[in-house]
Amino acid sequence: MENAFKIKELRYVPRWLIFFVDIAIIFFSILLSYFFLQTLNVKINFPEYYDEKIFGIICVNILFMFLFKTYAGIIRYSTFFDFFKIVWSSGGTLIVLLGVSFISGLIFGKSIYVYPVIFFVFFVSVFLMFFFRMSTKQFFSMVLKYKGKDISSKIKVAVVGIEDDSVMLANAIIHNPNHAYQLAGFFSARLDCRKAMLLGYKIYNRKIHYKSHTLTSLFDAILIKDTIKKSEMEAWTTFALDNGLKVLKGKITADNIVGNIRPLQIEDLLNRSPIKMESEEVTRHHYNKSVLITGGAGFYRK
After folding, report:
1. What's the whole-model pTM score?
2. For all residues of the chain together, what is the average pLDDT?
3. pLDDT of 255 strictly over 90
4. Which of 141, 189, 193, 240 is deepest in the core (most CB within 10 A)?
5. pLDDT, tens digit (0-9, with 9 covering 90-100), for 263-272
6. What domains sit in the chain, N to C, each tagged with a CATH number?
């Protein structure tokens, strides 16, 4: 079951699925509105064009759905901004249908759509589309909470930077649940992103949290991309060590980014190639000989 449906790796519901679910909701709202009108014995104008009128309502809705992109966005991170997009889209449809009904009433003496249908479809479709998004968001939260019981054993990392390369590293961690790392947030030196979120995770400022006693409870390590400048790497390394955090380095590759995350080595901080200590020629020349080492400025090896 776990291999067949890895919900933890599904970061968002596909846009085409959201689009078709919204259309199904609109269609259901139309049918429900006509059902109530028939139950109340309300006369429907132009009953011979019943199918055409339904098709017209759906087409107008689709037009505004594309205009306001109600199907876009990460549904598991839905907010009230998504609700407002739905209201704007459905509100545009409402205005168009009211205009069509008013003009048809002037021309034919009776409106194509009765006004109760228009308002009923508007309120029901808005409620159901937002309910669908909130239900999906809650479903993701429940499943991730259930599957994340073993997440305490993972290393909580904060990705350094909010650029594209850093987002790639973060996505690699999110989409690979079988590794030893858990994304816990982002670090940035920019002051204009203190209250911002990225991929649903908080962005922490380095200056504000310098020598903060709470960081060790939030993170185990920071993750630095391999394309970072040496000066920035040194600054972030100092920041991590001062706050009791480990330093990891991730290599940006086309595949399996998580597999290339490793602890930062001293060689990563050098501005030169590492000195090779082993030399077969020197070993053969000094083998089984007593060697006197003078000077203390450098270092020696036995």
Report:
1. 0.48
2. 77
3. no
4. 240
5. 766 655 665 5
6. 7-147 (no CATH), 151-269 (3.40.50.720)
> Is it the case that residue 14 has pLDDT exceeding 90?
no
The residue that leads in pLDDT, 109 or 228, is 109
pLDDT in tens, 177-200: 667 788 888 888 776 666 677 887
Q: Tokens in use for 160? A: 């350094």
